[in-house]
């Protein structure tokens, strides 16, 4: 099924299909034009034959009389070949009564103007007829049947059908060969984007001996990816270094505060020291969250390092861990987990995604409220609650960094939990959204471009 999907969405496959359709359309158009030309040529030949035959009859009448003309008409009818150009005649008086010929009645053509038209012989055989006025009481009609072109047209159609099929096969083979080569060259570029390792980027930057537009695109893409990779590596190194330089003095400061608490200061001083330690730990957690968000955003769409993860087992395990804490805090945790739901991902990051959503729900739902964790194949992960919900003016910015909401305990977080959830989701080609509900909040995590 995936192979059919790729073919349907490949620009090269579409080009080949359109080339085949174009070849078939041109072939059909040529056949229609040839068929019309044969029909028109046949009618023109028939008109000339009728004109020549009629002129000959007029000459016979002019050099003889009515009886001589009637005799010659009879001779022609007796001697004509039935498998050739079949002719019909009618010599009639002014009232249309037959004097000679094989036609029974006058077809209604105006003889005085030498009118011509198609008529039917015995109601079945179509013929081209032309009339003329020989004398005030004498008129003549000459008609020739249309030749049966069925065999000729079938032969022409067979020739065009065979030629069209051969042309389409040639177009399909040539197009597929060219498309296969182009697809292989573009696949090198796509592979480098999917997994930009040094060897692939170096090979892409070199290009090939063709030096055409695709080689130029491949070279530019390789160089651009290599620069982006160096910039990303430099950014991560700088971020890690800054975080380390900030985390280390903060940890040292925390250790000094621990020693200060060990000296048994008075109650007010001890409370201030404890508050300071809480602030320090909050800053450290914020730094770690920012680094995690930056790392996830930098690897968005990167499939390198992903492995199959049993999301059902992971969600069930986390649900059991949160069930005990939910009971202690006076909450109800409901689990609805479909088995055998798997996804390619990093288990540690997916764990943080689920725990952040659960922590967010428990933080904003007052005691006695219900938190629900639901998992379906797709995958489709839903964490919902019956708490106060998200204010309307915060629904658009809830996933942005430092977007804070007031919890039921009166405390505010750093505003990085949902931002980290979104970064982790995008890293795994997932999309997190706030679903509309009548009450509470409902966060859904689904594959990108699905809801």
From TrEMBL:
<feature type="transmembrane region" description="Helical">
    <location>
        <begin position="156"/>
        <end position="179"/>
    </location>
</feature>
<dbReference type="GO" id="GO:0005886">
    <property type="term" value="C:plasma membrane"/>
</dbReference>
<dbReference type="InterPro" id="IPR003594">
    <property type="entry name" value="HATPase_dom"/>
</dbReference>
<keyword id="KW-0812">Transmembrane</keyword>
<keyword id="KW-0808">Transferase</keyword>
<keyword id="KW-0418">Kinase</keyword>
<keyword id="KW-1133">Transmembrane helix</keyword>
<dbReference type="InterPro" id="IPR036097">
    <property type="entry name" value="HisK_dim/P_sf"/>
</dbReference>
<feature type="transmembrane region" description="Helical">
    <location>
        <begin position="12"/>
        <end position="33"/>
    </location>
</feature>
<keyword id="KW-0597">Phosphoprotein</keyword>
<dbReference type="InterPro" id="IPR005467">
    <property type="entry name" value="His_kinase_dom"/>
</dbReference>
<protein>
    <recommendedName>
        <fullName>histidine kinase</fullName>
        <ecNumber>2.7.13.3</ecNumber>
    </recommendedName>
</protein>
<feature type="domain" description="Histidine kinase">
    <location>
        <begin position="241"/>
        <end position="451"/>
    </location>
</feature>
<dbReference type="InterPro" id="IPR004358">
    <property type="entry name" value="Sig_transdc_His_kin-like_C"/>
</dbReference>
<dbReference type="InterPro" id="IPR050428">
    <property type="entry name" value="TCS_sensor_his_kinase"/>
</dbReference>
<dbReference type="Pfam" id="PF02518">
    <property type="entry name" value="HATPase_c"/>
</dbReference>
<dbReference type="GO" id="GO:0000155">
    <property type="term" value="F:phosphorelay sensor kinase activity"/>
</dbReference>
<keyword id="KW-0472">Membrane</keyword>
<dbReference type="InterPro" id="IPR036890">
    <property type="entry name" value="HATPase_C_sf"/>
</dbReference>
């Amino acid at each position: 099924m995936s192979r059919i999907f790729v073919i349907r969405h490949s620009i090269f496959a579409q080009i080949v299909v359109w080339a085949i359709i174009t070849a078939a359309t041109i072939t059909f158009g040529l056949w229609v034009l040839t068929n019309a030309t044969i029909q028109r040529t046949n009618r023109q030949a028939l008109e000339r034959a009728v004109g020549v035959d009629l002129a000959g009859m007029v000459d016979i009448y002019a050099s003889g009389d009515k009886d001589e003309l009637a005799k010659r008409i009879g001779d022609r009818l007796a001697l004509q070949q039935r498998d050739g150009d079949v002719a019909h005649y009618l010599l009639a008086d002014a009232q249309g009564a037959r004097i000679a010929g094989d036609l029974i009645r006058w077809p209604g053509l105006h003889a005085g103007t030498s009118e011509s038209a198609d008529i039917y012989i015995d109601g079945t055989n179509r013929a081209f007829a032309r009339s003329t006025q020989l004398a005030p009481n004498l008129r003549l009609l000459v008609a020739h049947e249309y030749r049966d072109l069925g065999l000729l047209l079938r032969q022409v159609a067979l020739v065009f059908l065979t030629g069209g099929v051969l042309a389409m096969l040639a177009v399909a083979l040539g197009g597929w060969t060219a498309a296969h080569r182009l697809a292989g060259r573009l696949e090198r570029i796509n592979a480098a984007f999917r997994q930009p390792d040094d060897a692939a980027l170096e090979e892409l930057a070199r290009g090939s001996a063709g030096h055409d537009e695709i080689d130029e695109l491949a070279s530019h893409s390789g160089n651009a990816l290599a620069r982006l990779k160096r910039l990303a590596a430099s950014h991560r190194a700088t971020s890690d270094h800054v975080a380390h330089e900030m985390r280390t003095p903060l940890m040292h400061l925390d250790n000094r505060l621990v020693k200060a608490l060990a000296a048994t200061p008075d109650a007010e001083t001890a409370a201030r020291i404890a508050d300071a330690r809480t602030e320090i730990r909050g800053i450290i957690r914020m730094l770690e969250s920012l680094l995690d968000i930056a790392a996830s955003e930098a690897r968005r769409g990167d499939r390198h390092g992903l492995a199959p993860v049993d999301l059902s087992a992971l969600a069930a395990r986390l649900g059991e861990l949160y069930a005990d804490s939910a009971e202690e805090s006076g909450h109800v945790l409901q689990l609805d987990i479909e088995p055998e739901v798997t996804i390619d991902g990093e288990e540690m990051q997916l764990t943080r995604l689920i725990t952040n959503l659960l922590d967010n729900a428990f933080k904003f739902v007052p005691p006695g409220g219900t938190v629900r964790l639901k998992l379906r194949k797709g995958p489709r992960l839903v964490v919902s609650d019956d708490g106060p919900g998200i204010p309307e003016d915060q629904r658009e910015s809830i996933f942005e960094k430092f977007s804070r909401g007031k919890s039921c305990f009166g405390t505010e977080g750093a505003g990085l939990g949902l931002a980290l959830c979104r970064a982790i989701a995008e890293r795994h080609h997932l999309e997190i959204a706030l679903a509309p509900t009548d009450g509470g909040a409902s966060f859904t995590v689904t594959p990108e471009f699905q809801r």
